[in-house]
Amino acid sequence: MFVHILIIVIIHLCSITSSRAFLPPTSKPPASSKIFSSASKVMASNVQTLVDQAKSLFDESFGADGDNNLPNYCVSAPGRVNLIGEHTDYTGGYVLPLAIGYNTIGYGRGAIVKKDGSESTQCRIVSTNNPVVEFQVSSSLEASTGSNKWVNYVQGVVLQYLPDLKDDETFTFDLAIVGDVPLGSGLSSSASLEVATAVFLERILDSQGVAYSSVKDASAPLTEEQRKMERAVRCKLAENVFCGVPCGIMDQFVSSAGCEGKLLLLDCRSLDYREVSMGGENTSSLDTPVLVITNSNVKHDLGDGEYPIRVRQCKEATDILTKMNPSIQSLRDATMKDVEAAAQSAGLDGVILQRARHVVSENERTVKTADALEKGDWETVGKLMNASHTSMRDDYEVSCEEIDVLVDLAQTFGDGVYGSRLTGGGFGGCTVTLVKRDAAPELIEYLKKQYEVKTGTKCVCFETTPAGGAKAIDL
Q1: Nearest 10 degrees: Cα torsion 125, 130, 132, 138
Q2: Which element (helix H / strand E) includes 431?
Q3: Are 248 and 236 in contact (CB under 8 A)?
Q4: Which DSSP symbol is given to 137?
Q5: What residues contact 363, with CB distance under 8 A and at least 6 apart?
Q6: Quick check: 407 pLDDT over 70?
Q7: In this structure, are residues 360 and 335 in contact, taking their beta carbons and an 8 Å threshold?
Q8: Which of 60, 170, 180, 288 has the fewest CB atoms inside 10 Å of its own CB, making it the most exposed?
Q9: Among 39, 41, 178, which residue's Cα sits nearest to residue 462?
Q10: What is the full DSSP assignment across 242-292?
């Protein structure tokens, strides 16, 4: 069953070389949950290091004292890996992501002020490899270009929270942004930045008793669960409207609402979701495989080129299917039989047929993968992952030579690897591989060595387990 939801940062700019399935209070936690306790300690250590870096950057850039009348806030938001369900979110389909222990951290102070000139309305942000950028928040704010393009992910989110204020009010803040989510790797560094910014702004709103403009009854504020979803929706809109990227909601959703130890099977149309465990109660920690993420160090920019083209092609495929069957309002509604019928009689052919075939079959694979994960059926999960990569490579055409090399190396590694595929938007980025726990170290060394031999480029590998979502950090 599903839960229905109502509707930083020093950036590491170098490429690093349903009802929810809660256990009853009396139930014994799955053995696999033991896996995540030690991993969470490592994640906490990494976060504290980033917090220290963010504070230092803030003090260097804006002064340690600053405005003593304003409190300091610190927030974090994770990147994500999508196990399966690629390029399905912007057609309202299913995805199966997990938050990871790589984060964007924001450290700063701010307030809501009047626009009458009695107080400063300046906003200043800084990141590790970028100087301070200053701007004033207004509905006429325009997107930045060139080297300051990264600032759009902050400004776009600020504009989504501006309607919460009175007409004569605006935001002022100083914010240092730091993080270790690799850029351009398909691990959602942009969504992590957006969500971290959103949590920072929410701290300012909360400190001054300001409710969301979407809340009609001030006596019944949003629950924490509803707030996470509201945040995800706003961050998606920021990226769509201000940054010009026609993405779906998956990245912002899992960064905002990720759950330690669980993947999220998300219906991107209704925002219903369920938490998915890796194995059931009887699955031991030794039997539970791990996920190895491999960064190809080939970058991409989803705001340009092929991503918007895929969105348009999906729309074209949907239009053809809708004419054949009016109940199909998006590719999410179609079955493979619908696609085959449209190919035979409705003119669905060529590249548009390929795009539809990928999205529809990927939705089916994603739901099956979630079910297999919960049963501990790793062989089935691996086969579905492999089929997903083939579909992305051949039908959706978002892979590239380097990614295909990594996937092939993993899939042919031998005993221990269940499956491997491209994760993220494509055109570079990362692969995700499901591998037996004791085989992971050997696989990582094999991938590093053979990938460099075959491509002349070094890759970066790490193991991951599902991490928690965005949060405010107590100082």
Answers
A1: -50
A2: strand 430-435
A3: yes
A4: -
A5: 85, 88, 93, 94, 331, 332
A6: yes
A7: yes
A8: 60
A9: 39
A10: IS-----SHHHHHHHH-BTTBEEEEETTT--EEEE-SS-TT--TTTS-EEE
Nearest Cα residue to 165 out of 122, 208, 135: 208
Beta-carbon contacts of residue 37 (< 8 Å; ≥ 6 apart): none
Closest CA to 276 of 292, 263, 295: 263
Phi, psi angles (nearest 5°) of residue 165: -95, 165
Task: Count the alpha carbons within 13 Å of 313 in the hemisphere toward its beta carbon.
Answer: 23
Side chain identity at 463, as an amino acid letter?
A: E
Q: How far is CA 370 from CA 266, 365, 382, 398, in A?
A: 10, 9, 12, 23
Per residue in 418-431, is it b (16+ CB within 10 Å) or e — as a string? bbbbbbbbbbbbbb
Query: Do β-strands 73-84 and 94-114 pair in parallel, antiparallel, or remain unpaired?
Result: antiparallel
- Exposed e or buried b per residue across 444-455, where buried means at least 16 C-beta atoms within 10 angstroms of its C-beta: bebbeebbeeeb
CA–CA separation, 83 vs 96, rounded Å?
6
Q: Amino acid identity, residue 264?
A: L
Assigned token pair, 266: 């998300």
Q: Report the amino acid identity of residue 149.
A: K
Q: What is the pLDDT of residues 333-384, one digit of tens each?
A: 999 999 999 999 999 999 999 999 999 999 999 999 999 999 999 999 999 9
Which tens digit of pLDDT belongs to each residue from 52-65? 999 999 999 998 76
d(CA 326, CA 220): 39
Alpha-carbon distance of 174 to 136, in angstroms, equals 12
Placement of tokens 């991503």 in the chain: 307
Contact 189, 196 (CB under 8 A): no
Q: What is the pTM of this model?
A: 0.85
Query: How high is the pLDDT of residue 273?
Result: 93
| C-alpha span between 365 and 403 (Å, rounded) | 21
Instruction: Centre a 10 Å sphere on the Cβ of residue 40 and count the other Cβ atoms it contains.
Output: 16
Residue where the block lists tokens 């690093």? 16
Is-catalytic flag, 251?
A: yes
State how far the Cα of 243 lies from the Cα of 238, in Å rounded to an integer. Answer: 7
| CB of 153 closer than 8 Å to CB of 194 | yes
Identity at 336, one-letter amino acid code: M
pLDDT digits (tens, 9 = 90+) for 29-80: 333 333 333 344 445 558 899 999 999 999 999 987 656 678 899 999 999 9
Contact 87/310 with Cβ under 8 angstroms?
yes
Contact between 145 and 244 (Cβ < 8 Å)? no
From the candidates 89, 180, 251, 338, give the one annotated as an active-site residue.
251
